Amino acid sequence: MEGVDYFEMYIAAVQWTTVRLMLMLEVIVDLKSEQGDVTAGFLRAELNKGEKVYVVMPQGFSQKGKILSLNCTMCGLKQLLRAFWQYIVQKMESCEMKQSNLDPCLYVGEEVVSVVFVDDILFCAKDEKDIHDLALNLHELGVDMEQEEDEAGFLGVGIEKNED
Fold first, then answer.
1. DSSP per-residue codes, 2-66
2. Quick one: which of 104, 75, 79 has its CA closest to 89?
3. Which of 20, 21, 82, 87 is most exposed by smallest CB count within 10 Å?
4. Could you tell me the pTM of the whole model?
């Protein structure tokens, strides 16, 4: 709403304490982990009900006196990050992942614990099958993810495990 929160931008940022704790538990309890990057996630979020956003038609498509009304978010929109966050919260809750009261970026399920940072998700579980089942459930709900290699590290943090 312009004049009230128009100049503020929202992003849920995971607490570093949560990330460190998850990575320590991965090593100590020998958890399996997978990292995913939500593909074009920002373009999947919807605008809030009743919210009207109009944009000028792109060059080459313009018609004199016409503008476009958006049905969903698009890059450059101030509402984009908050709308995506609401989208991912709803999808995680649909998969029975409970959002933590201590860190809203931490989700706890029966078998899987996950941490969300913007459009990156770290999944940890005792069994990799549980992670893949959750990823499949998210996919069925429209959340497409690209699996990141372990070497990439989550938020630039990598883990090296010794056999000792």
1. TTTTTT--------HHHHHHHHHHHHHTT-EEEEEEETTGGGTPBPPTT---EEEPPTTT--TT-
2. 104
3. 20
4. 0.78
* Mean pLDDT taken over the chain: 81
The dihedral built from the CA positions of residue 109, 136, 23 and 82, taken in this order, carries a sign that is negative
Q: Which two tokens stand for residue 45?
A: 């979020």
Residue with tokens 């009900």: 49
Contacts by 151-159 with C-beta closer than 8 Å and gap 24+?
152/35, 154/19, 154/23, 154/35, 154/115, 154/117, 154/120, 154/122, 155/14, 155/19, 155/117, 155/120, 157/19, 157/23, 159/23, 159/26, 159/27
Residues near 93 by Cβ (< 8 Å), separated by ≥ 6?
99
- CA gap 31, 35 in Å, rounded: 13
Judged by average pLDDT, the poorest of 50-64, 85-99, 142-156 is 142-156
Q: How far apart are CA 12 and CA 104, in angstroms?
A: 7
